[in-house]
Amino acid sequence: MPLTISEAIGIFERTFRVRDPNEIERVLRENLNVQVAVIESKESAENKINEGYYPLTVRVPYWIFVSKVKEKKLNVYSLEQENIISEESKKWKLEEIHSHSEILPSRTYFILKNEAGYYPDLGLTFEGDGEVTSFEKIGEGEKAEKFGVGREQTWEEHAVGALDRANRMLEIYKLFLTDWAKNVFSAQKLKEEQIKETVDAIILAIKIAVFFHDIGKLRKKWQEAVGWNKGRPYIARSANKHKVPFHAPYAYPFLKTLLRNIFGEFRFLDIIALAVAKHHSLEVTGAVKENDFQLADDKVVEFLSDLLLKTFPELNEIEAKRIIQNTIDATNKGSLIDEPPSLSDDFYFLYVMTNRVVKFADWEDAGDEVIELPER
């Protein structure tokens, strides 16, 4: 059962006041979930899914699920889209997870009923033979959305939608961010108004970063892979895609340059940029090859600069077009591998919080649902 906002604030506030990075990591990690479906067999589940049925799932805390998989040596499967040779070919298949390290938060996984111990009245017990979680009939559009392709969206629609979701989450987290800032900047003896201005600037930086989290999808290679045609709106999500180039790493050099151009030379901006680049996987390093950020067409610069000023009117004094062009040029120079801050780093909390906000904002907007801290 998801936490309410009030419950989460109580847990997080107690944790952050301890000022123990390991405890912060543990609490945030355990509040991440995976969706688990219990199935009769791999083959029967594939057949159901390809007939247009969606598996009902049980929400399980991420770290508990990983621990049980390791302890019980469970067979775990993820749902993947096959390459379609013909219309009659299967579109979906279950692929076995070979290591618990491959299990990621916010994903759907399948386990077998003879290992699961699932019961409708008890939930998932992991204690032996149980029942299946069953399937429900859905349409093709909803099927594509639920299975990871997401609803079709233009790049602008998804950027605006993700930002709307992030705005709600940042209102929740502002209390914690303010408390963190008071501790981190205590040596500077900042006044209350200065703390407020600092927090507001950090939140604005996160919002800008969330808005541009999918900047890598404006590459020519990515747009071509999802069937974009010149003169049409740029695509962020398409039900027609099969195999597409990666896009997340480009957010690191792009946002690092963009945020520094707007706010100045501050290390915390690099932390935000790296956290956003990892919005799909913590394995993303932010490394980008030189001249590998070729845009869909010559209108992208104007498109982005117009969107920046329209979405963030408080930036109306900046030279948006020049900054966007400089940012794109800097991204094309490539970037080296970067590492996240350590647990003892003062900016570790900012890194974890930003990654959580962008990850859930992206996921919520793709599925058009509220996931992070919904009210009961």
In words, what does this structure look like?
This protein is α+β, with helices and mostly antiparallel strands. The protein folds into 2 domains: 33-146, no CATH class; 153-367, Hypothetical protein af1432 (Orthogonal Bundle). The chain contains 14 helices and 11 strands. It has helices at 5-18, 21-30, 42-50, 62-72, 113-116, 140-146, 155-184, 192-211, 220-225, 251-263, 267-277, 300-311, 320-332, 348-367, and strands at 33-39, 53-55, 58-61, 76-81, 92-96, 108-112, 118-119, 123-124, 135-137, 153-154, 235-237. The strands form 4 sheets. Strands 3-1-6-4-5 form a 5-stranded mixed sheet. It has a two-stranded antiparallel sheet with strand order 2-9. The longest helix is centred in the middle third of the chain and has 30 residues, at 155-184. It starts with a helix and ends in a 9-residue tail after the last helix. The model is unreliable at 1-7, 83-90 and 139-145 (pLDDT under 50).
